[in-house]
Every structure is written in C-alpha cells, then in structure tokens.
Amino acid sequence: MPPDKPFDILVAGEINPDLILTGDVEPAFGQVEKLVEEAALTIGSSSVIFACGAARLGLKVAFIGICGMDVFGRFMLDEMQRAGVDVSSVILREDGQTGLSVILNRQADRAILTYAGLIASLRAQDVTDEILREAHHLHVASYFLQTALQPGLPDLFFRARSLGLTTSLDTNYDPTGLWSSFDELLAVTHVLMLNEREALSLAGATDIQLAASKLGARVDMLAIKLGVNGALGVRGNQNVNVPSLPVTVVDTVGAGDSFDAGFIYGYLNHWDLPRSLRMGCVCGALSTQKAGGTAAQPTLAEAMNYVP
C-alpha cells in the first residue's frame, strides 16, 4: 500500500455491541425463564467487525460513526482502539443511546433483537472530504440499518472516488424486502460483497449464477459469500468459485464481515480474484472458531497459512 496517506481504509458505519447468549433454548413469553449456557458482551455491528478484521490483518483502519457517551458506547470505543482501529473521527452524542443487539445462538442458527439507538444517525455529510483524503479506500456496511446515510451515500461514494479512493459496499439484508434504489449507488461502487440470499434478492433472480452475472456487470468486482460452499466472484468476464475452509464452528456471528476484511485485503494489495476470494473464505471461516465476531479473527500470518 502506498505510504502517502495515514489510513488504508475508512469505514463509515454503525456502532453497537452484541450481547451473545448461547444455549439450546427458545424464548417464550408468559414469564417463562430459561437458562443459557454462556453470555458475553462483545464487539458488534457489521461495520465495526469488518474494521477490526481489517486491522487484525495489518491494515491501517479509521472509523467514523456515531455513538452515545454511555456504557455501551465506551465499551465499543475501548474495544475498537484495543483492536487497532482509529476512532478519532467517531462522533459522540450526549443526548443519545448507543445501539445494542441481543443474539441468541442455538447450534448453527441465531435469533437477533436489535435496539437501534444511534445506529441510524450517521449522515453522508458527516464524512467530510478532509476525512476522506486521509484514506485509500471507503467501506460501508449495514446499508439498511443506516437510514440517515442512505440518501447521500451515492454522492459520498462519488466524492470518495473523485478524491482517489476505491469504494466497497456490503448491503446486509433488507428487512422490507424491497431492495430498491441501488442503480445510482452501484454505479459508484467498486466492490460489492453479499451473501447468497442478498445477491438473489438484489438481482431479482432465483439462480445464483444468474444473480452473479447481473450484479457483476454493474460493479468492478463482486463477491458472493456461500457459507460452507465457499464463495463466488465476478470481475469482468472472469467468474470464479472457491471452496470454504473446513473448521469446527463455535459461532458464526460476523463471519461475513470477516470475509469482507480478507477480501478487501486482497483487493487493496492487487491480488487476483481467486486469491482474494480464498483470503475472504479463510478469514470468514477462522473467525467462527470462538464466540463473538472478533475473538477469532486471524492475523495476516495465520490467514496466509491457508492462502497460496
């Protein structure tokens, strides 16, 4: 990476911790109390998990978002700094509450309850050109949670590109099921990263290869995460499948965000598509070996043990 800027990646995103409860139980109303096996307060939010994963790989990462001056906000800022993420651009609000997700893990599945708090508060105009000039790349995740960011995001990506940054987007899932208003945004997106369900929904397709073809034609590079089946990537006329890395799964929270970190590492270092996809699959798989989205994220040396 050229050393002319202080940061490799600027992440514009949401800030919230995850309270992860693990056990083979299902909640029930009627004041029914059930016991879980484990409880942990961990780093949450797709954007922050991505940022921590990228920093763990040795990239210089800055973050801009909004959180409250409360217990959850202080927890997140402390943990982000401990992970090597620069938080000097984070906006603190005395009059707001940091969001929170409560996650119930049950074997390979999970249920999530989220209190939005300040998650949706970041606006495109908060990401100034001065901040953009400090980075080589701009990443945005959780598009549908960041409702204040949505209207100005195409212009933000346009400004970033005009200043020489590359851009990446992981939409995450649209709870409305509408998947609208993406034409303008994808036109200024270099890298689009989705899971299979998101790709099918955004493309309006029932076949993943057709979805990949349609979406791959709209961005410079596309990566579709297929879980245990690996990943599918498209770049121009190149269409590539790579296998997953077999691991013993403890917790899948944040695996897709760790994939994104690995994939963007390859992209920023000008790796070819198959190698970048492999890096993404390795980082995503290794991240599932401990509870929480960041505890098992690999270092560069650990990831490279599995990347030819």
Brief descriptors of the model:
308 residues, alpha/beta, UDP-N-acetylmuramoyl-L-alanine:D-glutamate ligase, 9-stranded mixed β-sheet, 4-stranded mixed β-sheet, 10 helices
Q: What's the gyration radius in Å?
A: 18 Å
**Count of separate structural domains:** 1
Unreliable spans: none
Helix content: 25-40%
Distance between the termini: 20 Å
As laid out across the biggest beta sheet, the strand order is 6-4-1-10-11-12-13-14-15
Q: Tell me the major beta sheet.
A: 9 strands, mixed
Number of helices: 10
Give your account of this protein's structure:
- With 308 residues, this protein is α/β, with parallel strands linked by helices.
- It has a single domain (7-26, 38-302), classed as UDP-N-acetylmuramoyl-L-alanine:D-glutamate ligase.
- It has helices at residues 46-56, 71-82, 129-132, 153-162, 183-186, 196-203, 208-216, 255-268, 273-286, 300-304, and strands spanning 7-12, 17-22, 38-43, 61-64, 66-68, 85-86, 91-93, 100-106, 109-115, 135-141, 166-170, 191-195, 221-225, 231-235, 238-242.
- The strands form three sheets. Strands 6-4-1-10-11-12-13-14-15 form a nine-stranded mixed beta sheet, with helices on both faces. Strands 3-2-8-9 form a four-stranded mixed beta sheet.
- A hairpin with a 2-residue loop joins strand 14 and strand 15 (238-242).
- Helix 1 crosses helix 8 and helix 8 packs antiparallel against helix 9 (273-286).
- The longest helix has 14 residues, at 255-268.
- It is globular.
- The mean pLDDT is 95.
